[in-house]
């Protein structure tokens, strides 16, 4: 969980209830068995301490920023200057269809329910009960916003639905094991081998079907973009900032919509946008200000001066069109004073905005 936290603290928040449930179960088991209770407590405590120590460098600034932002929201709600968390579309905009689209398909939910029923009647009932408790905890986390307490509403139902694949996967795995034992397939080698081949075949078919669900429009990079970013790394100052195509995933969450999004990774230069969850970290205000300035580049009157004042030096227009269909008004941008085309190759264009 410490490693997950360093990657995505919300995902760690989803895993925390599972860890707590397992710890409570192990402690209760030790108490009932009257064996190793002290050792269990020490083990749980040691794991908690080590985990906290590992994430402390990231935890302190992250929590400080999170509490500061959420406290500001709470003050706005109390003063009546903004609606409560429960009225925010980010939290409240979901229904049963959202579960089927984001969390699990109807057929998968059906298999999961079958796994729960069979599992509760078999020897793996403890695993199933733990997964059920975790699922309930996830729903509880997703519904925390209804308390209208900004500090508690750290995620929405969408995040919870995405996380459901883990407990569902475990339950389906338990179902497969129970069915294997129920039909005593380990005693019938031919049947067992045959079933393994059937499962393998279905897995291949499912994988091919799954490939059709890959959102190729989110694959921004091309060989031409990679070449352009090599050029950027070798021909621009290290403190350069690039304006890139921007899409607002949420009103407070701008992110790149073409290959320019990956300039920090391929060329080690900053861009005007950031990660999809940049609102949860420091530097968020700068990202919002720069992204708002970039929006003028889509208009007939691009405000190059505003970008220059913010320290933005270059504009990157990738080989692929942005997935949202928006296009910079390049003709208007090129007519602005001081703008120079400094790179064009393979559909990629780079413009110097400021002297």
TrEMBL record:
UniProt keyword terms in alphabetical order: Membrane, Transmembrane, Transmembrane helix
TM region(s), chain numbering: 12-33, 40-60, 99-121, 126-145, 157-180, 192-212
Recorded superkingdom: Bacteria
Keyword Repeat among record annotations: no
UniProt-recorded name of the protein: Glycosyltransferase RgtA/B/C/D-like domain-containing protein
């Amino acid at each position: 969980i410490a490693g997950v936290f360093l990657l995505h603290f919300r995902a760690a928040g989803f895993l925390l209830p599972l860890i707590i449930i397992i710890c409570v179960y192990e402690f209760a088991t030790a108490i009932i068995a009257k064996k190793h209770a002290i050792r269990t407590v020490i083990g749980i405590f040691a794991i908690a301490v080590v985990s906290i120590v590992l994430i402390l460098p990231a935890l302190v600034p992250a929590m400080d920023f999170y509490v500061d932002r959420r406290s500001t929201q709470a003050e706005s709600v109390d003063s009546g200057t903004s609606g409560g968390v429960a009225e925010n579309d980010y939290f409240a905009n979901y229904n049963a269809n959202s579960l089927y689209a984001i969390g699990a398909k109807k057929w998968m939910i059906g298999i999961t329910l079958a796994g729960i029923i069979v599992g509760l009647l078999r020897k793996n009932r403890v695993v199933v009960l733990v997964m059920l408790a975790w699922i309930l905890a996830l729903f509880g986390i997703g519904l925390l916003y209804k308390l209208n307490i900004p500090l508690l509403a750290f995620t929405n139902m969408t995040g919870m639905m995405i996380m459901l694949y883990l407990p569902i996967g475990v339950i389906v795995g338990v179902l497969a094991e129970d069915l294997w034992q129920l039909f005593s397939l380990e005693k019938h080698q031919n049947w067992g081998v045959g079933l393994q081949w059937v499962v393998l075949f279905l897995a291949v078919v499912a994988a091919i079907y799954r490939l059709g669900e890959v959102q190729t429009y989110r694959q921004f990079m091309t060989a031409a973009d990679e070449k352009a970013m090599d050029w950027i790394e070798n021909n621009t100052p290290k403190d350069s900032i690039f304006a890139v195509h921007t899409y607002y995933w949420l009103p407070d969450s701008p992110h790149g919509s073409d290959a320019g999004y990956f300039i920090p990774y391929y060329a080690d230069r900053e861009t005007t946008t950031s990660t999809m969850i940049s609102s949860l970290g420091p530097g968020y205000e700068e990202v919002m200000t720069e992204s708002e300035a970039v929006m003028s580049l889509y208009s007939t009157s691009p405000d190059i001066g505003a970008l220059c004042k913010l320290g933005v030096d270059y504009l990157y227009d990738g080989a692929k069109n942005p997935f949202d269909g928006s296009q910079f008004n390049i003709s208007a941008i090129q007519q602005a004073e001081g703008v120079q085309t400094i790179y064009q190759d393979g559909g990629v264009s780079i413009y110097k905005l400021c002297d």
